[in-house]
Design goal:
The protein is of the alpha+beta class. The chain contains ten helices and eleven strands. Strand 10 (about 310-315) and strand 11 (about 320-325) form a beta hairpin. It is globular. It starts with a helix and ends with a helix.
Length: about 350
Amino acid sequence: MWKPRIVLVALLLQVPLAAAAGESVRTPLDADVPRLLAAYAVPSVSIARIRGGRLVLTAAYGSQSAGVPATTATLYNIASLTKPLTAEIVLRLMSEGAFSLDEPMYRTWTDPDIAGDEWRKELTPRIALSHQTGFPNWRDPVRGLKFLNEPGRKYAYSGEGYEYLARFVEKRTDQDFETLAQTHLFSPTGMIDTAYTGKPWFEGRIAVPTDATGHPLKPRIATHYSAADLVYTTSSDYAAFMIEVLKNRDLTPELAEERSRPQVSMMDTKCLGSKAATCPLFTGFGLGWQILVFPDAKLMIHTGRDDGVYTFAYLDRSSGDGAVILTNGESGDKLVVPILQHLHARAEFIRYLKGQEQ
């Protein structure tokens, strides 16, 4: 009879411990974040803190639009933070055996723009997820989609690579990508405030993007999904997704390991010149995330930027800590380091981020 009592005590202790982990940083955030918003003309920020694999804090500051305070229910265009979501959906499908990481995609689908190029045969999900397709970030509206270099040769960030992968997945599964997202990620995770395209429940909840002077811009809302951009969500929904990533939920052990392993080096873009002094032992792109390898820790990081929007997320796989920072300001990146300092992020990670500002 004593074992259930121990379990019960442990469960009861989790709530106050989680609350303490959140409240310990709430006061300094309350004191400093409004000042940061004013200093950089950023209307609002929504923050979620993960501690030891659990969500311990959500907070919102500023205004989502003129005269409307931001709340933890405010929806933000997360820009390229869309890509880790897309990657997770794809990896879960792989874990179910729908297709493989190194499957040549041309056997199922080829973009008409590259139908005559032999390099198309080298494209695989692994290459697309790790930004090695050789595509530009976005296709030229006149010339269409073209290779800039042979696939699998080097890292080159490409939204088109993720769009290409999503179209392959649709053809391979015979299902719409938004349906796959709902079935394999959003519903199982309880992400009820996340969508690839505009929904009626967006009404009155959107954080309006703003330029560097704080002037409002028209929100961009997708009418057809993008696998690389324009998902709207809350910081708590995105944190719920990140906790799933920490737990490797619904992934085979092999794919979970591949996701957090650098697939391609980014040292030549992130650690040149003066930036080398604050770099980790190694950094590269995994499957959906940039990976930072420190002597005693491995971190996963991604950022997002559209006009009038900056977003940021990281996970410390060694400690189970992490954070989501969503802003609707062009200069939202200026808030990241000060907020992470208040959240007690790893010191060498802070140094790396500061070094990247040079």
